[in-house]
Design a protein that fits this description.
The protein is of the alpha+beta class. The protein has a domain of about 45 residues. Helix content is about 25%, strand content about 25%. The strands form two sheets. The protein has a three-stranded antiparallel sheet. It is globular and about 30 Å long.
């Protein structure tokens, strides 16, 4: 019997399926999550580079954990300076 994995990640504007995400990248204005076709499935804007890097690292960790089937704690977006 196949094991079902819950892979939804909560973002400030909704949820995204972590199973779709194959990469997380820092850009000039934010963080983008892409799928296997290099299409953006999630995008977040942050003002400074250090915050973008911190957000990308945390998001990558959560994507990998969700894909392994682990329970993923929600990110504290306000702590990262994200304003919805």
């Amino acid at each position: 019997m196949a094991k079902s994995i819950f892979t939804l990640l909560e973002l400030p504007y909704g949820v995204v399926d972590a199973a779709q995400i194959t990469g997380v990248s820092v850009t000039d204005t934010g963080v983008v999550c892409v799928n296997g076709d290099n299409r953006a499935v999630a995008w977040l804007e942050f003002d400074d580079l250090s915050t973008r890097r911190k957000a990308a690292k945390q998001l990558t960790q959560r994507v990998m954990a969700a894909q392994r089937g682990e329970v993923v704690e929600p990110m504290n977006w306000e702590e990262l300076g994200y304003e919805a």
